[in-house]
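Limitations

Structures in this collection are predictions, not experimental determinations, and the ligand pose is part of the prediction. Treat each record accordingly. The example that follows, with magnesium ion as the small molecule, is included so readers can see exactly what is and is not provided: the inputs are given verbatim, and the output is the predicted complex.
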Amino acid sequence: MLDTVVFSDLDKNYDELISKAASSLKGGSLVIFPTETVYGIGANYKISSSVKKIFEVKGRPLDNPLILHVSSIDMAMELIDKTIDTKLFESLANKFWPGPITFIMKKSSAVSDFITCGLNTVAIRMPSNTIANKLISLAGTAIPAPSANISGLPSSTRKEHVIDDFYGKVEYIISSDDKPIGIESTVLDLSLDKPIILRPGAVTKEQIEEFLGYEISYFKYNGLKKPKSPGMKYKHYSPKASVIVLEYDYIYSDKSKLKKDIGVKSNNIMYLEYKNSKLMAENLFADFRLADKNNYDYIAVKPCRKDEIGVAVLNRLSKASGNSFEL
Ligand code: TXA
Ligand code: MG
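Predicted complex:
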């Protein structure tokens, strides 16, 4: 068990602590840090044993590649194949970075196979969270960081989630009191003829299309062994309780009616409904974790509207329910 150092940007020694965390990360330690989407668990991308530890502590499948987090476009350029045209990437990055969007590009030789799990492409993102940015800048190098959760469980959106999952397993946990967006970044693949969205997020299809001036589509995973994004084939975002998605216009009156409506015997049902999609994004994963802490058997969720971030939230809800809910 490691002696995990936990601190936040409100700590009076913050500057000293984050410098220590950055140099410890450079030396091969694991550091958990907040981003504007969800918490990430970072390592030194050049040390294979350090990156391997990320997979180990998360229990992450070995064929699921990592996103490299950068603090500047120049840092990103070093990770991208020098022989390709990067104009589209640069214009999109200038428009949407720092922010909740990840771009997939053909990789340069600086990026090893243990980051991309053998793919010839790399996922890159510049987070807007100031702690994340400072950590990357201080480390002076891109930071590979998947969401900081045990694989398969909901991503971490609060300090207590990362403490629950990783205290004693990583050298540093940096927390923030700011509420993050609550779901992971949009993943946009720019390595093909036409951009395609592999994972919806807070940067919407419409925002990207408006900037590009043409329509793009979502990649639909068809159950094949080799999906475009390896993460697609794994169970995700799932609490231990079974997630049941209600009708869009469900009207909740009481528990016994809900029990009848969803056709279960257990009384141990958590009912979730949110005012809007933004609040649902902020709180869904935290509520999933709360349900598990309180040993609920079922979580019955009223879906939000398919507006803006709603598309991404419903995508996570669908996966959490075992894809029983069609978007
Ligand atoms: O908001 C986020 O993106 C958070 C924060 C920490 O930045 N990170 C995150 O990482 O969600 P992770 O590892 O949980 O999800 C990354 C997704 C996975 O589905 C993975 O398969 C996909 O990105 N991915 C990574 N590299 C890829 C590549 N070269 N080609 C296609 N998909 C890739
Ligand atoms: Mg994840």
